[in-house]
Automatic annotation (TrEMBL):
Keywords: Cell membrane, Membrane, Transmembrane, Transmembrane helix
Organism: Hydrogenovibrio crunogenus
Protein topology in the membrane: Multi-pass membrane protein
Protein name in UniProt: O-antigen translocase
GO terms for cellular component: plasma membrane
Superkingdom of the source species: Bacteria
InterPro entries: Poly_Biosynth_Transport
Record-linked Pfam families: Polysacc_synt_3
Amino acid sequence: MIKRLKPKSEFSRNVLTLMTGTTIAQALPIAAAPILTRIFTPEDFGLFAFYFAIVSILAVLATARYELAIVLPKRKSDAYQIVILSWLIATAVSVLTFFFIWIFELQIINLLENPSLANWLYWIPMSIFLMGIYQSLYYWFNREKEYRNMANSRVIQSTAMVTGQVGFGTLTKLSALGLILGHVVGQIIATLYMASKFIRNTRKVHKPHKLKQIVLARRYVNFPKFLLVAHTMNATSHQLPSILFNILFSATVAGFYLLVQRVIGAPMTIIGGAIGDVFRQQASQAYAARGECVTEYKSTLKKLFIISVVPFVIFIFIAPELFAIIFGVEWRVAGEYAQILAPMFFIQFISRPLSVMFLIAEQQSKYLIIQLFLFFGIILSFFTGKDVKEVLILISFSYLLTYLWDLYLSHKLSYGIETKI
């Protein structure tokens, strides 16, 4: 399949660089999953899913989505100021989150009916801060076409995370906290790797400038104005199942769901993201020069389909058996979940990398409406489904409808057409 990407082209070389790194990075937790599923219980995975869901939702606020604007300015100095602006916002959000948790700790624990929250609640601000810093650096290196550093950072993060989780799991009795601490270790090491290279390459050329940061914050105000809400809705839609499965069903159910996300959703999302990173850079340049990027769009769409169709078919037919063999008999239920969610992962893999068209065409308001539709679809799924599997079917259907709509609109935008919802 990789040969179909035609490695001789610049696009394919860049994609392969990112795919190599991200494939290795994703292969590590997948390879470690059979070990982790024998160290930690489904309930431990469920509680970790709960933590990760909260962090992922709040992390969207960490930079106010200004990191997405880093690839857009013509001048590198302006992009640098946006990076620093993103760091400042991430620091402020993390500090505010810490004080919020400090003041309302007992109320949060009682509201969520989960006493074990006390063991890891204060790790949330740290994770939010690290996610904000890392994402802004990732987009900087994307702008600079430093695809090797981007790929290396993924591998470093994954290696440190897996090592930490296995280590904490085997050497301590921390249960779910071992999974959480391993995740934080991976974040710290990957962020330090990216930050050291960024500082080394920019400290003699660029300096922070508050006035320029204010001007640029106003210039790209549509990112927090529209995308902050849209991406918060998107993150909430993706992470809400982990939260609601914990609250409405059990941590064990949430643990099964997390394993599906880790084994199927994560690699498809990251590989698709590698293609999307390159598409973002090339489509942005083409759109600025020609007012359209339909050639780049169709080429990327074709590649995404070719890569995803075979895994999709495999999981439709034999997911339960695969999960039982690889992760242990008690995880067969997770394989049944994977069967139900396969259509969702398929359309998500194809559509999400191409959704950058809403940013390139500055049609963020339309993207917000799509994410609102998905958000309410997820909510409705939980309150109309009679049992876990029925809820999963409704979730899969909600994603399928939403991303088909997303794909239709992004395709029209690639022609330079201002389309209506």
